[in-house]
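A protein record in our archive is deliberately plain, so that people and models can read it alike. The record that follows is passed on verbatim for readers who wish to inspect the format.
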Amino acid sequence: MVTLPEIGPAGGARGLLADIEAALAGHLPGFRQGLAVADDPRPSLPRDLLLAPDMIARIAARFEARYGPTDPRAILSIWTSWHFGTVLPPVLAAGILFDLGPVLDFEAARFIMAPDLRTEAVTIGEGTVRLDRGNAFARFEPLVDAYLRPAIRFFASRGGLSERVLWSNAGTAFEALLCRMEALAGDRDGYRAARRFLDGPSLPDGAPNPLYRPVRYVEGRRIRRVCCVRFLVPDGQICAACPLDPTHPARRPHDTP
């Protein structure tokens, strides 16, 4: 394992983001970029304007300019995968390295958008949350309850994509990020807790864990549990972890020499 500096929280959200950046400098650049403090000067959107009809139309136009008419479900699925792949890295890094979480509130957050309309960063509260080191589920409860659950409910309402697919997108991003962090932090309690969390089929209250084992590995190949519907994009491509049966029509072009 790579030896990481023991950097303590320098004070509030701003200090936590600085600590993440310092700890991962030279190892995982960019992991800190998905979160921003509330006074970040970049233009941002409130939740109500995120994926509003005009924004969805602009995102769809970008897809259609490249691929032709594209099923809205595929567009939403790809966009949300980008979103989770932006927000989750600094959250997981904070939890694994420092046993701290940012103050996440999807309903109150503001969203900084890149020119291509992907999420560039999400604003967080001023403080930090001390995570429960003794319980893998409690450790990730703030992330699930304050951000992922309301975000997924909101995204599903915007584009007709099932919450099951959206949870799978979040879980797949979560697992992929753990793979990237293993060489750096695989010996840390926080990393092992994250793996236990993904391996637990139920939450402490008995409800199903919506992030349970989002991917599996078969003969070294990474396979999603739930299809992301990437095959609905007119180019006929499938995602690298596609779970579709090889006989599915969407996969036939890729099985032809």
